[in-house]
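Appendix B: a complete holo record

For completeness, this appendix reproduces one full record from the ligand-bound portion of the collection. The bound molecule is zinc ion. The inputs are the chain sequence and the ligand SMILES; the output is the full three-dimensional arrangement of the complex, encoded as structure tokens. No fields have been trimmed.
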Amino acid sequence: MDKGKTTSKKRKESDSPTQSPKSKRKLPTRSLAWNVFTRLEDDDSRCSCNYCGKTYSCNPATGGTTNLNAHMKKCKAYLDHVESGSQNVILTVGGT
Ligand SMILES: [Zn+2]
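The structure of the chain with zinc ion bound, as generated:
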């Protein structure tokens, strides 16, 4: 009893090597400050610390994230968070 079902239409998709040259988009390295601060919705020239709630000016015209980085170094709530637990967080304050 041969079942005449030999219609195994297996389409051989030509597996052409889809090796497109990996062109990694260079995303602008966002400042670490943006892990800590959130821009205020009603005033995007200010942002608040996610950990202690303090607000700072983050207007690029007036120094940008400089004062944010400064705050990160002394924000008790943030430092506590960094020290307690997530040791994967690499603190690279400074640079620009
Ligand atoms: Zn803070």
